[in-house]
User: What shape does this take?
Amino acid sequence: MSDQDLKKKILQGGIVLAIRQLITSVFSLVSVLVVARVLGPEKYGIVAIAMGIFYFLIWTNKLGIGVYVLRQTELPKETPRQILAFYNTLGMGLALLLWLLAPALGDWTKSTAVIPIIRFLALPLWLELLGNASIVMMERELMFAEIGLGETIGQMANYAVSLPLVLTGYGYWGPIIGLASQYMAELVFVRYHKPVPFQFHWRSSFIFPALQTGLVYTGATWILSLRTLTVTLFVTRFAGIEAAGIVSLAVRFADQLAVFRLVLNRMSISVLAKLLGDPDRIRSAISQGMVYQVLLVSPACATFACVSSWLIPLMFGSKWLPSAYLFPFIATGVMMTAMFELHSSALYAAGNNREVGKFNAGYVALQWLAAIFGLNLFGIWGYGMAELATLPSYGLIHQAIVKLCGAPQYRNALLLVLATLPALFAGPWLPSWVGLLLLTACYVAVFAISPGLRKILFELYGAWKGGRQALTED
Assistant: This one.
């Protein structure tokens, strides 16, 4: 495939995936509005505890088999069946583990209400694993648009079930049952597009080599995924369940506003793997990708920060106002994560998992240490300190990427971050129009002094036009 054909396929698939991701995000924010307002901070905190555990397992339970499959130039015909059989066995093992660990987690979080919820999580975890066998093969064929549609349908199923349950008095069980509905719908969709015959038996001669490669990758992601447990393990323990709800709402807003970064991140390993052996092309892709990531994340976060101090009380109630003041700290962490995600993807694609693991370990260690001290000394503000405390760890990932392909160009990405910070941190404390005016002035200034940023705007516009055409043809 030529560079032009590859770029066209990536842009079209990425834009279609982004459009569908945006639709999902809008509905997600509506869901958060209803659920958080009805449940209140304490009951929403119980949901946050369960979701932290769930997504930690989601992001680590695949054991890197998908990455192994993406790296192989040729695969046995039985590969999808072997993956499905192994994930079915793994899902049953996780169900038993959750059943046994639930009482201990209830004691640690000081909430017995989480025990039956944690045990119920075994169902959506098992469904997600079963669907992943089809998704891995779809990613190998760069079927990103179809994957995005399946995820959108799953999210819609979630909201269709969870919102009525919450509104009719089922409380925090609504989002949990909705989660199971989501992965059931996704399973049906992906098996329709990429059917995999079901079997119980898997061969160690196939799975063990995949695990040998995959576990090295999973070890690095497992370390980073520990950050999803920060609220569950530390905010809940040292600041209380209500604080966990407030922090989780701010995190949810930051994640939803940064949703476009997931598009590039989702595609990055598959794409960068095709550039291996050409350091100049990898370095160029990272340099441009960093700017795309920050540009797709930072303006949305800063705009929300400017209106958050009146929007959050209006939509959720005054007791949720601390989420607005905590949001800039979390958004800063999200911006920096977006900026350096392609570094990790390139290292993964090249098999340098240990370097990513070192960075991830440094990141989590700084966050957890700062969270323990900060939450004990400053209460909920300690979580904001923990987000900022992770910034020095990015020096490790920079050093690793320099060894792989040389130093990327950071200037344009850093200019965007610097242009965002004034409005991001001042916005919640200023009248909304003043914060938005400050944001506009900073961005006008930074685009005026950087021809490279102006060029990227035109590239994004061209990609948008191509994506609209692809969506219409689809």
Q: What stands out?
A: The chain has one domain: 3-473. The CA atoms of residues 58 and 312 lie 29 Å apart. The chain has a mean pLDDT of 82.
